[in-house]
Amino acid sequence: MFADWDQEYVLVSDDPAELEAEIERLRKENEAMRSAIEDVADTAEQGNQLLMEESQRPDAASGSGPQGSASPTGSTSASTSQAVRKKETAAAAVAAEKVSTEELLREFQRVRAKIKGRGSKEREAETQEPAGSVAAPQASSSAVSAPSGSASGATSAAASLQRQPSTVKATSAPASSKAAKQKGDPVVEQTDDPMDIVFVSAEVAPWSKTGGLGDVVGSLPIALAARGHRVMVVAPRYLNGKSDDLYESAKDLHSPLTLDLGACGEQTVSFYHVHKLHVDFVFVDHPCYHRAGNPYGDEHGVFGDNQFRYALLSLAACEAPLTLNIGGYRSGEPPGFPYGDRCMFVANDWHAGLVPAYLAGRYRRNGVYKDARSVFAIHNLSHQGVEPASTYGNLGLPDDWYDPLSWRYPDWASINGPAVNILKGGVVASDRVVTVSQGYAWEITTAEGGWGLDGVLKERQHVLNGITNGIDMVEWDPSTDEFTAAHYNADDLSGKAECKAALQRELGFDVDPKKPLVGWIGRLDHQKGPDITLDSVPEMAARGCQFVMLGSGDAKYEAQMREHEEHFKANYRGWVGFSIPVAHRIIAGCDVLLMPSRFEPCGLNQLFAMRYGTVPVAHATGGLRDTIQNFKEDAQGKERGTGWTFNPPDVPTMMRTMDHVLHVYHDKPQVWREVMRNGMGKDLSWNKAAKEYEQIFKWSRLDPAVRPW
């Protein structure tokens, strides 16, 4: 069935229909592969258990009967021989299954690497490590931050099979290990305080994603699970036709639940479940999530019932740990029981802002979740879930909880009057508040960055912390990247020069290693500063730079990108749209990545750039200021910095900074390489962020729970 694994995979058509058929064929092959791996893994586990049982029997080792009494004459040798034969047979079976499993996993990894990125992101969920595989994967960060569809899950499972039988437990959480790992990925140590953690979010990649929120909720829970925690993620089950197949692997738990949403009446939801990489992904199913468009709206604008949709999600998420029998994946615990009410909830953005309010206002006052705690994570403060005050009755909260959510539109808003602000409720009712960077945690307490909530956030500043997001260290790895022309690392940068030359050829530029190649990747939105970037193109061209932009969004910026291509043919290329392979090639091939964002809660592109030895030049705001160590001329080694930052975000200031950047690039190549290597040496993994979240969780348990209002 898999005889052609050693054949190089080549796309044979650009026709969308043919490509879709090819992707479907590959999906079915991978499904068959997954089934084969499960069969082999189960057989290996059974062999391991048999071997352990035989080795632990007293008569197998010594020939003694119960309580050490002597066996009848002749039976001792027969019993011993039989036990030895069983033991040898089991050992041989285990050894054979280990070999076949490792071979299967290696081939599975090769197949996944061939098709990764060929189709849509939706197919990635089909090629994940099978749920319930033989043993917990090795706790390396290649498993922690593996994207859907990456090969790291297979690698981890193979590593697990190489452990001694006495350490294999089918229900155990990931164990600490120093097994082989991706270069640059730190070994993941185990927590000494395992918790039951429940993430609630409107998005979770790869099932639903419109931006960074989906990436975070698709990665951070996996990192925490790899450290030994039991983790659940609760998100909507969006069905709109195109993405229905994403949820094919999610099994109906047949646990319908009726929820009371106040004036909205009783609503019945169902739950679907996927156990992947030691995380319970739970999807709430209701007709309000079955519609065309993205999670929040369609071509006509945002959905008018979003308040109802995410209130329903929040209440369902509060019920899930109490009612769903999906717990039991920690060592020594049988599966099939609820998580219980001593959970740590992580509510993400306004869509989950009612979770802390429900815990304190509905459950805790009735004796439930007395020992639970909630952390409210702000990814983007500009979206707050504000609706007129008359909608408060739709939320299913007690009357005396109106004040924590009450709000008035600021003077600059187009709407006036009293309102309910769900994000405010999350800030006020949670035990701890986190943002996606330390810089953003400070900015949101200022009038300039607080979006009308700076006063509320200042009052909670004593429980407000910033934790910088991580990145997927497997998907974004210059030593293995499948989309780039060459591979390289901090010790050997020759491959980066090849990537630059390949990108210059692809874009139609002169292939000249001396010409600085500058890139910009992002959404064509005012926040990201595309106007600043586009207005700088003439000056970039005058300085001899080659410049490439990749992005889509505002039509006026797309038009300006096309105009610049006509006027600056030798120096500028604009790619309208978005392509994951092209993004990888720009990150790997450019010398500089430009990021003049007006505000940036965290930012990911600067992290990708540093991982690839591409020097970021960015506005000193939010997560950009936190993650980029500004260049210091008179420093040495790691103190030299990892990039350049500037302020304010305008063309003159940015170009003055670029003049300094180009001076170092042209005249101090050794210093330039030092800056490149400094960025490549940073720990950008999700494991680092996971440890910081653990500290927040511990602090929240030391604080008294938020009382009923």
Automatic annotation (TrEMBL):
Domain of life of the source: Eukaryota
InterPro entries linked: GS/SS, Starch_synth_cat_dom
Gene3D superfamilies on file: Glycogen Phosphorylase B (3.40.50.2000)
Molecular-function annotations in GO: alpha-1,4-glucan glucosyltransferase (ADP-glucose donor) activity; alpha-1,4-glucan glucosyltransferase (UDP-glucose donor) activity
Location within or outside the cell: Plastid, Amyloplast; Plastid, Chloroplast
Pathway: Glycan biosynthesis; starch biosynthesis
GO CC annotations on file: amyloplast; chloroplast
Pfam families cross-referenced by the UniProt entry: Glyco_trans_1_4, Glyco_transf_5
The EC number(s) this enzyme carries: 2.4.1.21
Protein family: Belongs to the glycosyltransferase 1 family. Bacterial/plant glycogen synthase subfamily.
Name of the molecule in the record: starch synthase
